[in-house]
Amino acid sequence: MDVRDGRVVKGVNFAGLKDVDDPVTLARFYNEQGADELVFYDITASAEGRGLFTDILKGVASEVFIPLTVGGGINEVSDFERVLNCGADKVSVNSGAIRRPQLIEEGAKRYGSQCVVLSVDIRRVGDQWHVFAKGGREDTGLEALEWIRQGEQLGAGELVLNSMDTDGVKQGFDLELLQAVSEITALPIVASGGAGNSQDFIDLFQLPKIEAGLAASIFHYGEVKIPDLKQELLAANIPVRIV
């Protein structure tokens, strides 16, 4: 769930954001639908230089009884404590870690690597994959695979790979990018960006080290229902949790 100004929004290639729903209502729905995990991003917190919407986060956490990963405006270890106290299970770092990589190490030492999720917004630039910051607004010039290696060394326990090239396009996950990352890291990978139908998830889970597929549009607009997707994954011999 990408949240801006207190509302869930969704765009294409990180642009053209449209209003979807109230985050607390949507969180309740996904909890009831059998989602395995919820990822909550306050997508303008870093760009606007403010803290994350803690009041909305508390409302979301009160409705969710599955793991909740939270990101947006995480710049100091004190931000970890703030969102964990609001009900988050894991903390996603992105722009704050790019500015100061030691944030990953500090968070891992205090709360454990299992709590630190390195979220990376990636777009192809020429023949490289670059890391973008501030909700995809700023090309950092960092080469994505090198940044992921560094994040793992500093203590991140999980990766969320957000492909800006496939985001919202609904033509499938960025399998080339995901394969390249899986070859250079031992961390579990959550794939994000591009899911358009159930087959896209089946294709995704043929890759090694992919622990989860993250999607927004197809679930927000009811194009794919989580219980139906899980049954199709099960039929394809992919292990899933059936509620």
How would you describe this structure in keywords?
alpha/beta, TIM Barrel, 10 helices, 35% helix
Ordered list of secondary-structure elements with their pairings:
Blueprint: E1 2-4, E2 7-12, E3 15-21, H1 23-33, E4 38-42, H2 54-63, E5 68-71, H3 77-85, E6 90-93, H4 95-99, H5 102-111, E7 116-125, E8 128-133, E9 138-143, H6 144-154, E10 158-163, H7 175-182, E11 189-192, H8 198-204, E12 210-214, H9 217-220, H10 226-235
Parallel strand pairs: 1-4, 4-5, 5-6, 6-7, 7-10, 10-11, 11-12
Antiparallel strand pairs: 1-2, 2-3, 7-8, 8-9
Catalytic activity: 5-[(5-phospho-1-deoxy-D-ribulos-1-ylimino)methylamino]-1-(5-phospho-beta-D-ribosyl)imidazole-4-carboxamide + L-glutamine = D-erythro-1-(imidazol-4-yl)glycerol 3-phosphate + 5-amino-1-(5-phospho-beta-D-ribosyl)imidazole-4-carboxamide + L-glutamate + H(+)
GO molecular function: imidazoleglycerol-phosphate synthase activity; lyase activity
Organism: Enterococcus devriesei
